C-type lectin domain-containing protein (Brachionus plicatilis), 181 residues
Amino acid sequence: MPSTPRELTCSAAAEDTCQCENYRNIDSPYYWSPSEKNCRTCPNGYLSGYGYNIQNSLNSITSRCYRVEYSSTLSYSAALASCTANAAHLINIRNSMEMGVAAYWSSGTRSFWVGATALSTANTFTWRNWLSTTVDADLWCRGEPTGGGVGWGAYIHGDRGDCLDQAAVTTNLYFICEYSV
């Protein structure tokens, strides 16, 4: 495992917005820990996905680590179980920068499950870790969500760009786990 990088910069306005020396590298194993105010290493097999200049975002900070599953496709519940077995959950996408990070890994034709489902109301998708938070309309592909309904999950549509689509939770897709540090 590489040694922990030194801290690079901290904002004078907010102590918890610091960057590690690798902040331009989306596939880095390091993240900034606001609670420890230090650079830390993600768990084995996880990457920080800093997202530098993704979606033209000035925000290149994330204190989360991600594991991208390219080797097998699973149903939504099996993907969720795989993440949970490693003390993680399916990725929750909070903003366009995080969508850009996830879309970076799905570029091409790969589609990945994310942590949003329609559990009680058709076409109202909520993030699994924040059941009261609905998926931001700006994250959906044009015209989505349509059809489907309860028992459907959201996924990053690999060949439609940086956006979410929906599928029956029985569909087998790749997936991205998020480890909140």
Observations:
- Residues 96-106 form the longest helix (11 residues).
- The first strand starts at residue 7 and ends at 10.
- The chain has two helices and twelve strands.
- Confidence is low (pLDDT under 50) at residues 12-16, 52-59.
